[in-house]
Amino acid sequence: MSAQSSQSSNSLRIGICGLGTVGAGTLVLLQDNSAEIALRLGQAIEVVHAATRTLDKERRALLESCGVQQSGTDPFAVVNDPQVQIVVETMGGFDPAFEVVKQALSNGKHVVTANKALLAERGNELFPIAEANNVILAFESSVAGGIPIIKALREGLAANQIDWLAGIINGTANFIMTEMAAKQRDFADVLKQAQELGYAEADPTFDVEGIDAAHKLTIMGSIAFGIPLSFDKTYTEGISNITPEDISYASDLGYCIKHLGIARKTAKGVEMRVHPTLLSKSRLLANVNGVGNAILVHGNAVGATLYSGPGAGAAATASAVVADLIDIGRQLASGSDTPVYPALGYRTLRDDLPILSVEDIESEYYLRIPAVDKIGVMAKITRILQEHDISIEAVIQKEAISEFVPIIILTHQAAEKQLNHAISALEALDVVVGSINRIRVEPFHDEMD
Questions:
Q1: Which of 46, 86, 158, 198 has the fewest CB atoms within 10 Å, i.e. is most exposed?
Q2: Per DSSP, what are the bridge partners of residue 273?
Q3: By residue range, what is the domain housing residue 30?
Q4: How far is it between the farthest Cα atoms of the chain?
């Protein structure tokens, strides 16, 4: 039986809210792979109702070709349709997505969503509603597109204590950093190209300032450590201040710069942070280029495991949406009233792991210090660092640029709070002629080689 067949009591009946890139991709995938899906699930998946903000000629043709019986512009008509067993939310944003998902869950319908922002910022409100109604709120497609990282963290690695995870989880930012490194191009120039290629939105803020990555890291960190979703406590820093010079200096030291999301459990609590990061060129994540995504997860039993692939796109994200639909279909077929997997991996979320302020983390650091070109400058700089208990691992002093010379310093591990005080003291020196650029360094000593 195909996805476009007439309604059958043996079909899994779904409704889709939103027919943009992901929603339309889901419709197409359900049609193209209908036979394979039916074999895996034991029944067909049938789209019986769909709603889209703009029901134009192109979308009408898509709905007709996929055999969708009912369509319109009101997502609540889908949510309240008694035929619909599972609601797929691919509208994005918060309004009306939050109310749509909330109503669907309250109606006792399972929900599959690709909406990372909604989950990261308001998931703490939605998951209890799902639990109270014994329904599933599934979200594999919300993080890293077609990479099954949610299932890996929640199910495949369930026997492990997760020590840390780190990921390249925004393809736009990774494309920009890759192009800047390969061709020594400015950020603004590559951003314009990314927009022309469709990798970046007209307003690229969510991508280049790290907000999109922070949403994804919030979700992964919650599953990894069993903590409530804490987007408001996730430190977020973008890539707009990275220069070709930084990339070149980092390369001279054996590093590349990647925009990473990092979640790490420490004795003090959990670090949740998104920022540009220096990585040794030999590390796995350093070699993930273009629009690709990759997440490295370290468990105490399994060690390091790497998950990589397409982090966005219609087909890749739709693959994750349909995988969730199949999982829910199997749950329904089992006859169990209780979802097999807790949404965030833990039956009870932990309240004993605080999210640390970025000032409380410890890291190694890259510093680019613009200084006047005269004798005694390095002595003043090293004295300030010593006073703040920050030791130097490596120094590069480049040729003078106009009236100043860039001094590049790699430090050993130090507390962020100490470094902040040191930077303030350095910038107050009469020999420092501008702002100091600081980039954190992650050695990942326990990564697999």
A1: 198
A2: 235, 262
A3: 12-138
A4: 84
240, 210 Cβ separation under 8 angstroms: no
Q: Which of 164, 140, 168 is nearest to 152 (CA)?
A: 140
Q: How many domains does the chain have?
A: 3
**Residue 245: exposure state from Cβ atoms within 10 A (0-12, 13-18, ≥19):** middle
Please state whether the predicted TM-score (pTM) of the whole model is above 0.85: yes
What is the C-alpha to C-alpha distance for residues 333 and 311, in angstroms, rounded to an integer?
A: 31
Burial of residue 202, with CB atoms counted within 10 A of its CB: 0-12 exposed, 13-18 middle, 19 or more buried: exposed
Q: How far apart are CA 205 and CA 311, in angstroms?
A: 18
Q: How far is CA 121 from CA 231, 295, 311, 362, 407, in A?
A: 6, 21, 20, 27, 40
Domain assignment of residue 216, yes or no: yes
Question: Would you state the structure tokens that stand for residue 441, as one six-digit string?
Answer: 């360094």
**Structure tokens belonging to residue 269:** 């609590």
111-169, pLDDT tens digit by residue? Answer: 999 999 999 999 999 999 999 999 999 999 999 989 999 999 999 999 999 999 999 99
Catalytic site positions: 216
**In the numeric block, which tokens belong to residue 83?**
């035929």
Let me know whether 73 and 124 are in one domain.
Answer: yes
